[in-house]
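2024-03-11 09:14:02 INFO queue: dequeued item DUF2516 family protein, len=115
2024-03-11 09:14:02 INFO validating residues
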Amino acid sequence: MLAQNFDLGLMMITRLVFIVTAVTALVMAAVAREDAYRAAGKKTKSFWLIVLGLAVAVNVVPFFSMLLLSIAGLIASIVFFVDVRPALREVSGGGRRSGGGSSSDGPYGPWNGGR
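2024-03-11 09:14:37 INFO prediction written
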């Protein structure tokens, strides 16, 4: 009986991780600008919203709770996180600045007197 409860708990945690990953990817895809997808050379925003929306639906709706579809949704979310999201951030100017900027740089230049 203890093993059965452990398996049930493990499946619930796994499903929760799949849902959180898919929802987070969907929100990030929805927030990004449409032109950033084109500039990064990735599929369109509509494509990613549909794919990630299906990933959320597969994990949330009990009718679709087939493990293979859930894993496919997780893979789509991971592809978004490791390939598409970094490209969107680079094109949009998000993240850390490149070009030798220092952590002491303010909006109009260095705060440390140019040192």
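2024-03-11 09:14:37 INFO annotate: The CA atoms of residues 1 and 7 lie 10 Å apart.
2024-03-11 09:14:38 INFO item closed
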